[in-house]
Design brief:
The complex is a heterodimer. In chain A, 73% of the residues lie in helices and 4% in strands. Chain A has helices at residues 4-16, 19-38, 56-63, 67-87, 91-97, 101-137, 142-146, 149-174, 177-203, 211-218, 241-264, and strands at residues 41-44, 47-50, 232-233, 236-237. Chain A contains 11 helices and 4 strands, in the order ααββααααααααββα. Chain A is globular and about 60 Å long. A two-stranded antiparallel ribbon of chain A has the order 1-2. In chain A, α2 (19-38) packs antiparallel against α4 and α6 runs antiparallel to α11 (241-264). By secondary structure, chain B is an alpha/beta fold. Chain B has 2 domains: 20-228, 3-Layer(aba) Sandwich (Rossmann fold); 237-297, Alpha-Beta Plaits (2-Layer Sandwich), CATH 3.30.70. In chain B, a hairpin with a 2-residue loop joins β1 and β2 (32-42). In chain B, α3 (126-132) packs across α4 (148-160). The longest helix of chain B is centred in the middle third of the chain and has 16 residues, at 178-193. The two termini of chain B are 33 Å apart. Classes of the chains: A mainly alpha, B alpha/beta. Chains A and B meet through α1 and α5 of A and α2 of B.
């Protein structure tokens, strides 16, 4: 395991020198900008207007405007980390340099997590660069906004980090890059809401340990168009933040471990 | 590409290579046996050609040797150790397996920097190896825009980056122009002369004949021959090529005499195992009209074909003492 730091450096070098991870950062920044914009759209008695958020929930939505970017793009970064190796056959040179595959996979988990945090930094930079001037222009309170940084930012950072690891796990299982990206986004945006809806309506169960719901728990109940800031969202009970973190860690590490034993140890031909 | 002689700053002198040893190696893919109880040794200080027709199991063997694939049974070692047990293996073993394992958007220099980081290699060697393979001017171009030959040279640069004492190269001359092939031949000869172990697989037999000291010939996953090329070719069977308007009749006569004649054209017959002294009297005794009678000297190609195209290919392998 003494090779792990340099293997992580090598994985981050791969991220830096290929366009895919930077495209993810760019899309995350764009989605964050969209999130900032929507957090200024205030609805009241069927009247929608553009205004500075003033409530705690509204301000938290502004600080957490990168939530959609996190749940969509952080897993994609993780998927790219592993599937690029298969798509371009770079895995051969990776394993020639270090044939111990468990170390290589561990390095990819850590590198994905670090790149997830890197995306989060860009996302928060976008919120600061766009959100604060808009807030000031609309007569909002910057000190009130900053008071929500503490409750929201650590959870958002954790969400980016853990979702990137979760994506890495998906990529390890799937290997095909396009299938992995579609699966990562599809699970989040399509399959998971359907599963949650089915269990909720048929069995009156809150399936709150699935990745997106666990992310909501970590991020303090933030969700697109959700109330934010509480322990419930749309009538569903969320896990506590630390249980949500454990759930997301298990999704990420669990899929990576299953992928290691089922696909990553296979012959490289 | 720079001349090898007189400038070898990219490769250190006096490096002692390690012996590669394959013992009883078998690899099955489902019901298909790709490598079948294969055993051979590759000695330091010599260029060893690893030859066989398509599907003979060469690439599979090399991938098992480099721990990219698991053997069904048997062992492969380099200097007595499995590849995975060699600390920082890229510093000791350089490998070229295929010219496609690059990210097309990564620049060539960045590719080598990446190899240096993950293999714990000396990054200061990047410029010398780029210079050696003639890619200095293109080092900042994306690999996606490289020709096959340029990719192959970049692969070689990567293999040499760690200044390894063992080189394992799978079809390294693919895509190289004649000048590049000649350069590669000089490089491999030079590296072996320094004491390094060089194992190279190729289908360019004429080129290999000029490059290798030893050969390992495999067919259908089994060893067919192993040893110094000069010994193997000198002791293998000769053939006679006969041009005659009576090819079918001569084939029958040769067959009746215990030879294995093979038609090479409408009026040409190749009689394996025959010599001028044995075939000439036979032709005269039967009054066959002959336009041309030529003894075919057994070169590497002839040896290769003899060992790999026989219908049975099940005989005991030919082994010669290394020296």
């Amino acid at each position: 395991m003494t090779a792990l730091p340099r293997l992580v450096r090598a994985e981050l070098f791969k991220f830096r020198t290929t366009p895919g991870p930077w495209v993810c950062v760019g899309v995350a920044v764009l989605l964050t900008g969209l999130g900032v914009t929507t957090s200024f759209i205030v609805g009241h008695h069927n009247v929608v207007r553009f205004a500075a958020p003033t409530t705690t929930e509204g301000l938290r939505r502004l600080v957490g405007a990168g939530y959609t970017a996190a749940i969509v793009m952080a897993p994609v970064v993780g998927v790219l980390c592993i599937t690029t190796e298969y798509r371009h056959r770079v895995l051969t040179s990776t394993l020639l340099a270090h044939p111990r595959r468990r170390d290589v996979l561990s390095a990819k988990v850590l590198a994905s997590a670090i790149w997830g945090l890197f995306m989060a930094v860009f996302s928060f930079a976008m919120i600061a660069a766009m959100g604060i001037p808009l807030l000031v222009a609309e007569g909002g309170s910057v000190p009130a906004l900053l008071r929500q940084v503490g409750p929201v930012v650590p959870g958002m950072l954790a969400a980016y980090l853990l979702l990137a690891v979760y994506g890495m796990g998906i990529g390890t299982l799937v290997r095909n890059q396009i299938a992995g990206v579609i699966l990562a986004i599809g699970l989040t945006l399509v399959l998971e809401p359907i599963v949650v809806g089915i269990f909720s309506s048929l069995a009156h169960m809150d399936v709150n340990f699935l990745p997106t719901r666990a992310t909501q728990a970590i991020a303090g109940g933030l969700a697109p168009n959700g109330p934010g800031g509480g322990d419930t969202q749309a009538g569903h009970v969320l896990l506590s933040w630390w249980l949500g973190a454990i759930a997301l860690v298990l999704w990420g590490v669990g899929t990576a471990v299953i992928g290691y034993f089922t696909t990553f140890r296979r012959d490289v031909t | 590409m720079r001349s090898i002689v007189g400038q070898v700053s990219a490769v250190s002198p006096a490096v002692r290579g390690a012996t590669i040893e394959v013992r009883g190696l078998t690899k099955r893919f489902g019901g298909i046996t790709a490598v079948d109880d294969l055993s051979f040794r590759v000695e330091p200080g010599r260029v060893t050609g690893f030859l066989g027709p398509n599907g003979a199991g060469k690439t599979t063997t090399l991938r098992i040797l480099l721990d990219l694939a698991e053997a069904t049974s048997g062992t492969c070692t380099i200097g007595g150790r499995r590849y995975r047990d060699i600390p920082d293996p890229a510093r000791h073993v350089g490998a070229v397996l295929e010219a496609t394992n690059f990210h097309p958007s990564r620049r060539a220099r960045a590719h080598l920097e990446m190899l240096a980081v993950q293999g714990a290699l000396d990054a200061s060697r990047i410029d010398p190896v780029l210079d050696l393979v003639g890619l200095t001017a293109d080092a900042r171009r994306k690999v996606g825009g490289y020709s096959l030959g340029m990719r192959q040279r970049l692969q070689l640069a990567g293999a040499l980056l760690g200044d390894p004492s063992v080189l394992i190269l799978d079809e390294p001359s693919n895509g190289l122009d004649p000048q590049g092939i000649a350069w590669l031949r000089d490089l491999l000869r030079h590296l072996a002369s320094e004491g390094r172990t060089v194992l190279v697989s190729s289908h360019l037999l004429a080129e290999m004949a000029q490059t290798v000291d030893d050969v390992v010939i495999v067919s259908r996953g089994r060893l067919r021959a192993q040893g110094p090329l000069s010994l193997l070719t000198s002791q293998s069977r000769s053939s006679m090529r006969v041009r005659t308007p009576e090819r079918p009749r001569l084939a029958e006569i040769a067959h009746a005499a215990g030879y294995a004649p093979r038609p090479l054209g409408d009026d040409v017959l190749l009689v394996d195992g025959a010599t001028p002294e044995t075939l000439g009297p036979l032709i005269a005794a039967h009054g066959v009209v002959v336009y041309e009678l030529v003894q075919v000297s057994q070169d590497l190609e002839g040896l290769f074909l003899e060992l790999t195209t026989s219908m049975t290919a099940q005989g005991a392998p030919v082994e010669m003492a290394a020296r």
